[in-house]
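Weekly structure sync - notes
Attendees: PM, LS, DV (DV joined late)
Agenda: review two folding runs queued last week.

Item 1: First target. Sequence and structure tokens pasted below for the record.
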Amino acid sequence: MLNKFGKIIQFHRKQAGITQKQLADLAGIGKTAVFNLEKGNSNFRIETLIKICKILNITIDFQSPLMEEWRKHES
């Protein structure tokens, strides 16, 4: 699963035409964090993933059979 995240991040970064260093600078994180995430390393902070996704315009969506019920409950 983590490797899939990394491949998605890498694909979007390359499509944006930016380097790992540029992405790291834009997200306000270290280049090593981008490298490790793209390589599927499991040692990353969720805040790091969120920052990267914001820069690359990637949304994170939770999916489960109970999500519709949860949304009704939260309203």
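Item 2: Second target, run right after the first with the same settings.
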Amino acid sequence: MRKREYLDSVGDIEFKFYQNKEDFVVDEIPSVEFKGKGNSLIIHVKKQEMTTWDMIAVFSEYLGIPAQKIGYAGLKDKHATTTQYISVDVSYERMIKQFRHNQIEVMNITRHSTGIRMGDLTGNRFSINLFEVDQIDAGRIEKCARKISKNGLPNYFGFQRFGRDSDSFKQAKDMINGEIFIEDSKVKNFLISIYQSEFFNQWLRERVEISQDENNRKFKLLDGDIYMDEKGKLSTPKIMPKKDYEAKKLVPTGLLCGRDVFRARDEALEIEAKYDDEFLQEKGYRREALIYPKDIECKYVKKQTMLNISFTLPKGSYATVFLESIADKNYSAKDVKKK
């Protein structure tokens, strides 16, 4: 995989961070305001050092119900402390009140008219400890983070998307071309997502490089770009919407190739077509090319030469990508393994 390129970075700073329960904390922000009444039980849970699927399996076994009966909005990191919301039928309220587990804590329960569905979140709040940071560099990191918040962060898929196998994209390509057969539907879907995501990342890298060279390191809009508004609606304006883009009302998008998806036009299409597969039978999507980290807070601990940085990202985006941009470095699972 080619290096992910960024628009704003400090560049000459070295810091370390680790994905573990003490130094990497993620809190889910739901998109639904729970009503406090209804036939679904909404459970606010905290988990440590386990995947969302592992947590769901624990509740499935405890309640004696299929995992498919447990609703959740998104997947959370394994090597972290994370909070999120899950839902079950209200008839299990008494059992949930008695639930105990050494890696899972039920923080609160309420009720709602419907269960939680995949995607029922607006984003996630992160709190991450950065180590080996002196006081001067802490200020530079905060300044850079606020600049990214203003100008936008290239919305790459992070290293987590591609699994541990560096050959996963080749494997996906071979499967799609019919050179290998994958029977397991989960593995098949995982490889298809890798295939789409790698093409998107390659496309975004080229657009960032153009922006570095031709637009003073600010993301360059092209004729024929497809934009997404705040409600997720797509459009291709005849006149380039610079004012709405600068006001963050519209954001340019990139292609996750597949069927039944809008393609770019004109100048934007010339680049997008390089990273497309029109024959892919799976559904395609558009993904925001830029996101805007919000509510950045920094706290420096001099004795530990540690900077805690907290920020909010929209769903589907990666905290590690934000840190990559600041450091101008691509991370891997080996770089952030438990301290």
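Discussion on item 2: The mean pLDDT is 94.
Action: LS to circulate a short write-up before next sync.
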